[in-house]
Amino acid sequence: MAAGDVVFFQQWLVDVQEALHDGENDDFRYSIVDSTITPLTTTSDPRWGAGGSTDLSVNEVATGGNYTVGGIAIANPSVTLVSGEAVWDGDDFAVTQHASNPTDGRWGIIWNNTATGKQAVGFQDLGSVTDLSAGAFSNTWNAAGISKMSRV
Amino acid sequence: MKGTINASPEVKALRNVGRIKTLRLNIAKRKSRGMDVASREEELSRRLAEVQALKDALAELDD
């Protein structure tokens, strides 16, 4: 994987078809975890909390400064049909530099705060351990969106 | 798909164009369903303003 890559959990494919996610209206979050865990597409039933097989929230970076518990809301999530593909998109975001910001971010976790089970959607590779206290941190999604689904 | 951490202005400019496309489509869909679009229209306006500023700056180069 390369820095910035966004990868979806295999479990997400199941969760979508069990109507656990509403990509248009749910409250999706981007939370940062440290390097003590390496999320994989195969990570078993990943959640942001208890109830599944993997609770990613236990690996959340030490919060402080401009990064609060549970991470950052992905504003204005949207699902649109673009050239025959269902594109899921949302606003980009930034965490302003602060001396008390987390210093050991390694992965971004996308999860659903509306879903009762707090199911995780996917993750983003930050490339290396990232110190948010040393400078601003921003995430710009792909120009084409966060993800897209197509018929096969 | 690949996003970018601490993106350059060039990447952000391209992203603006992409997000404007999805926002326009999404706003049209939501309006057709009677859903709220206020925050999406604000985001669309903000990004359009950024693109317009870039276009104006480029136009100055052509003068």
Characterization of this structure:
The complex is a heterodimer of chains A (152) and B (63). Chain A is globular. Chain A has one domain (6-142). The mean pLDDT of chain A is 96. With 152 residues, chain A is mostly beta strands. Chain A has a five-stranded antiparallel β-sheet. Chain A has one helix and twelve strands. In chain A, 5% of the residues lie in helices and 36% in strands. Chain A starts with 5 loop residues before the first strand and ends with a strand. Chain B has one domain (9-62). Chain B is mostly helical and 63 residues long. The model of chain B has no long low-confidence stretch (mean pLDDT 94). Chain B is built from two helices and one strand. In chain B, helix 1 crosses helix 2 (38-62). Chain A binds chain B through residues 2-6, 24, 75-76, 78-82, 87, 89, 91-92, 124, 126-127, 130, 135-148, and chain B through 1-7, 11-12, 14-15, 17-19, 21-23, 25-26, 29-30, 39-40, 43. Strand 11 (137-140) of chain A pairs antiparallel with strand 1 of chain B, so a sheet runs across the interface.
What is the total number of structural domains of chain A?
Answer: 1
Which pair of protein chains has the largest interface, and what are the residue counts? A-B, 35 and 24 residues
Largest sheet of chain A: 5 strands, antiparallel
Order of helices and strands of chain B: EHH
| Secondary structure category of chain A | mainly beta
Portion in helices of chain B: over 70%
Helix and strand arrangement:
The complex is a heterodimer of chains A (152) and B (63).
Chain A: E1 6-8, H1 10-17, E2 28-33, E3 46-47, E4 54-55, E5 72-73, E6 78-82, E7 85-89, E8 93-95, E9 105-112, E10 120-130, E11 137-140, E12 147-149
Parallel strand pairs in A: 3-4
Antiparallel strand pairs in A: 1-10, 2-5, 2-9, 6-7, 7-12, 8-11, 9-10
Chain B: E1 4-5, H1 9-32, H2 38-62
Helix pairs in contact in B: 1-2
